[in-house]
Amino acid sequence: MAYALTTITHALATMTHALTTMAYALTTMAHALATITHDLTTMAHALVTMAHALNGNSYGPCLSHNGPCLKPQLLWPMP
Description:
This protein has one helix at residues 2-54. 67% of the residues lie in helices and 0% in strands. It has one domain (1-79). It starts with a helix and ends in a 25-residue tail after the last helix. By secondary structure, the protein is mainly α. The protein is built from one helix and no strands.
């Protein structure tokens, strides 16, 4: 009888561990998807920023604290 109870207890512990492992796997996959989404969003933002720079629209930070706001300039003249 004691062996049967021990076996049942061990089986329950094994199933609990399996469920915990699956939950951890799902959490890891969700984190991976969030990371991929963040990476894609960052790349899209970089592309938009480069497109703005190529069009001559510099929305950079203000580089002067005392005088007028100095925006970054392009290194070549635009037509």
